[in-house]
C-alpha cells in the first residue's frame, strides 16, 4: 500500500548509518541514502517529532553458514555518519543483533513518547530494517518505509524486502512523500 498518512506521534528510526556500514559495497549509493535520511531527520526535528539513531556494535552469538565478522570492530566503525547531524534531543540506540528492539530500550522509549508509528530508513534493507520492522509490527506500531532512504548489500534482498515483505508490514513511500505528509499534517 502506498504511503497514505502519518500518525500524530510518528518517530523516525534510522538504522546503521554509521562509518563502518556505509563504507561497504551496497546495491545503491550510500551517499543518496544518507542524504535522504538526513533530510528526514532534519524535518522530524523541525516538527518536534522523535528521531532515533541506531548503530550496531556487535553481533548475536550462534553458528551460521555464512561468515560474519567476529570480535571487535575497528575504531570508528560504529560512529554515525556526520551528515545525520546528531542532536542532543535524538534518542541513540546501540544494538548487538539485527533488529533495533532486541535487548535495547527502543520499545520503552517509543511508548514513553506516545509513538504510534515509525518511519524507517537506513542500511541494510533485508537485515536491520526488516528485523526492526517485523518487531515493530508485532508491537502494533504503524510503519512507513522511506524506500529511497535505504539500501542493502544485495540488490535481490533489497528488492525482496521492498516488494514482498514491507507491503505486508506497513506502507512504502519516497523521502519526498514522507516530507510532504509531514508538511501537510503539521501545517
UniProtKB/TrEMBL annotation:
This is Hydrolase. The gene is yecD. It is an enzyme of class 3 (hydrolase). GO terms for molecular function: hydrolase activity. Residues 10-177 form the Isochorismatase-like domain. Transmembrane segments: none annotated. It comes from the Bacteria. Its EC number is 3.-.-.-. Pfam families: Isochorismatase. CDD domains: cysteine_hydrolases. The keyword Hydrolase applies. Keywords: Hydrolase.
Amino acid at each position: 500500500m502506498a504511503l497514505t498518512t502519518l500518525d500524530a506521534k510518528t518517530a523516525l528510526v534510522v538504522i546503521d548509518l554509521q562509518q563502518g556500514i556505509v563504507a561497504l559495497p551496497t546495491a545503491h549509493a550510500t551517499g543518496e541514502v544518507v542524504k535522504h535520511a538526513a533530510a528526514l531527520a532534519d524535518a522530524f526535528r523541525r516538527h518536534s517529532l522523535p528521531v532515533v539513531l541506531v548503530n550496531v556494535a556487535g553481533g548475536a552469538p550462534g553458528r551460521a553458514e555464512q561468515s560474519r565478522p567476529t570480535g571487535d570492530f575497528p575504531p570508528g566503525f560504529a560512529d554515525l555518519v556526520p551528515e545525520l547531524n546528531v542532536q542532543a534531543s535524538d534518542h541513540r540506540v546501540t544494538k548487538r543483533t539485527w533488529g533495533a528492539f532486541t535487548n535495547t530500550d527502543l520499545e520503552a522509549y517509543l511508548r514513553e513518547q506516545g509513538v504510534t508509528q515509525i518511519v524507517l530508513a537506513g542500511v541494510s534493507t533485508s537485515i536491520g530494517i526488516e528485523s526492526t520492522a517485523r518487531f515493530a509490527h508485532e508491537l502494533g506500531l504503524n510503519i512507513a518505509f522511506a524506500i529511497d532512504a535505504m539500501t542493502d548489500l544485495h540488490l535481490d534482498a533489497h528488492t525482496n524486502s521492498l516488494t514482498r515483505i514491507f507491503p505486508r508490514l506497513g506502507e512504502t513511500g519516497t523521502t519526498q512523500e514522507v516530507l510532504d505528509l509531514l508538511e501537510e499534517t503539521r501545517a
